[in-house]
Each structure stands twice: as structure tokens, then as C-alpha cells.
Amino acid sequence: MNRTPLSQPTSRSDSSPVNGGAKGRLMTSQTSDLDTFEHETRARIAASTDEAALEAVRVEALGKQGALPGLMRTLGQMSPQERAVMGPRLNGLRDSIVEAIAVKRAALAEAALEARLKAEAVDVTLPAPPAYRGAIHPISRVMEELARICGEMGFTLEEGPDIETDFNNFTALNFPEKHPARDMHDTFFFHPGPDGTRRLLRTHTSPVQVRTMLKQKPPIRMICQGRTYRCDSDATHTPMFHQMEGLVIDRTTNMADLKGTVTALVRAFFEVDELIVRFRPHFFPFTEPSAEMDVRCDRSGGQLKIGTGADWLEILGCGMVHPNVLRACGLDPEEWQGYAFGFGVDRMAMLKYAIPDLRDMFANDVRWLRHYGFSPYVLPGLAEGVG
Asked: Which of 35, 47, 129, 279 has the most CB atoms in a 10 Å sphere around its CB?
């Protein structure tokens, strides 16, 4: 764009009385040039479409080497009469252009924000999405339910690794050297290490009990949950499954305490206050005496109902901790005693929520999860019921 050049100031000799008429005409010319400059500068400011173009106008008009600062530096060469006229005029013009640039910059920022908001707008008139697309898996739900029940009973939650040593998984738990569980057809072993020992995928969560007794002095009141692994697969068994176990170690606990604890636990889990249970003698290498716990159930009509009927269903195994286990963990069986219990979390989920096939839990079928899953916004609690 062609811009009108600004007139330079006159010399002091032009201000003599002889040249008074010429001085008046020159000041009138400078004022006209300033008016034209202001008009063109405002037009360029208004035509600026972005911050870069606006900054170019500012630098040209007000920058260190710009038009107005150049004129301001010449005020010292003017006569007092000229300065009295041009000084206020130049200052006013500068302030006017500064204000115009600020207004335009604010308008550009507002337009940019408006464009961004428009680009990121959400149409709230569209149908609302489902309350939740994902769901809590029944196994995760059951583990949370059991942890909350045991937490109310004073148990703490301990954790351990899935890859274990032979000592923690078998030897410390009183498994004989030739026990069938140590065979390859029942346990997933890793290749031997440099020292000849083999690690394995834990076959139960009992190694967490061993780790807890090795690191913590009694009294102990803990539970552990997690994945376990065995070479087995059918409708009620999978190579990977979940267990939960509990352990209590102190000086006075006994079999009556064990029966009361597991009975209260199972009744709270199935939410049947008058659930009838029975204990049958059994054998586990790590407990003595050992027992299995059954609950009363009804299998008539092709359905399984817990807490009613004349049939029995095995739920969990339990017993008093074997003295050899206490010795292996550095505890004196003459001073300390305790009890332990354990069960399959997957099976408990099947029983409580009528899941017919254990393998479906790991089939990655979204339809199955939508049917059996739980809302992530509803947490289990004893006050409102764990189910």
C-alpha cells in the first residue's frame, strides 16, 4: 500500500517573522500528512487478519525505527511555537495508534478463541452414551467382596510374586520330596538356573503365607489373593485360576476359632445368615488336623441354591498350621500356633453368580462381561451387602 510520507520539520530560520507565512503553510502541510498517516495506519490495523500482520503495522508505526518515533526525535529542532503544536499532536497520535492496536489484538484473540471453541464443540443434543461401557469382571468383584469381609474381621492383605521358589511353594509347606505336585504334569516349572534350581509358577497362594511368616513376627492375621497355575483344564478347572487364603498365627488360637472365622466369612459372602455348614476330616501337607468345609445346598430343578435343601457342597479347605511349616519359617511350634484356610475365587464366583462354565471367564467375550459384569461405580460393602 502506498503511504503518504511525513514532512520533515523546518529549520529555526524559518520561524523568523519574515517567514511567518511560510511557517504556517508548512505546519498545515505537516498536520495534513499526520492525518493521512493516521488514517492509513488505522486502515492497516483494521485489515490485519492475524497477530503477525498486526505486529508488522506496530513496528512500522511505533517501533524504534518507526515513523512516529522518528518525528518525536526531531521535536528538539523545532521552534517553541512548532513544538507547542506538534508535540501534543504526535503524542496524541501515538496514544491513538497504541489503543487501536490493543483493541485489534483483543479482537483477534477473541476470534481465535471463538474458532477454537467452535472446532471443539460437543453437540449436547446427541443421545447420551451408556452409563458405562466397561464392567468389573466377576472375579475382580468377588476378590473385592472377600477382601472387604476379611478386612472387617481384622485381616490385612499381603501380596507375593507369581514366580516362586521350590522352597516357598513346596518345601516350607511340608510337601515331601516325591510329592505328585512336584511333577511336571501338575506344575509349570522353568528351566534350571546356573545353580541347578528351578523356579516355578506358584500352584497356590500359600507361598505368600510363608513369605509373611519369614518377614513378620507373630501375631499374624493376613489374607492373600492372586493368580495360581496348574496343568489342568476342563469346565471347572483352568491352567490359570485365582485363590484366596487366610492365615492366623498367635499363641492361643485353636480349631474353634478357625471354624467360627470361616463360617462367618462364608455366611457374609453368600449373604445367608442361617447357612448350615459341616466340617469333614481331610489331609493337607501344611495343616494338621485338616478339614474341608461343606455348605447346605439344593440341586433340584437344574439349579444350585446355597443355604437351602438337603445336599452338601464343598467350599474350602482349612486346618491348623503344621508344626513343620512353623519350623521352616523360623517359628517355634512350642510357642506359636495358628490356622489357615483357602479356596478358589473363580469357583466362589461361579457359585454365587450362577456362572455355568469356568472357561467363559477367560474367553474375552464382551457379551459375557456385559451380562455377568458389575458397574464400576457400585462398590461392595457389608453395610449395603457385598453382592
From this structure: 279
Handedness of CA 232, 237, 238, 242 (dihedral sign): negative
Instruction: Report cis status (omega within 30 of 0) of the bond before 356.
Output: no
State which H helix or E strand residue 95 sits in.
helix 80-119
Cell of 48: 490485519
For 241, phi then psi, to 5°, come to -145, -175
Scan for cell 483357602, then name that residue.
342
Strands 156-158 and 305-306: unpaired
Q: What Å distances lie between residue 307 and 147, 275, 353, CA to CA? A: 22, 5, 14
The alpha carbons of the chain give a radius of gyration, in whole angstroms, of 43
Whether residue 382 lies inside any domain: the answer is no
> Is the same domain home to 110 and 238?
no
Q: Are 26 and 10 in contact (CB under 8 A)?
A: yes
Is the domain of 190 the same as that of 261?
Answer: yes
The DSSP call for residue 173 is G
- CB crowding 13-39: b at 16 or more within 10 Å, else e: ebbeeeeeeebeebbeebeeebeebbe
Last residue of a domain, one of 89, 119, 149: 119
Q: Output the CA angle 202-205-211, nearest 5 degrees.
A: 95
Per-residue DSSP letter, 385: B
Helices 20-47 & 80-119 angle (0-180, nearest 10): 10
CATH number for the domain including 300?
Answer: 3.30.930.10
* pTM for this predicted structure: 0.63
Mean pLDDT by 10 residues, the chain (387 residues): 50 41 52 79 88 87 82 80 81 86 90 88 73 80 94 94 93 84 76 87 95 95 94 74 96 95 95 92 94 92 85 94 96 96 93 87 86 81 52
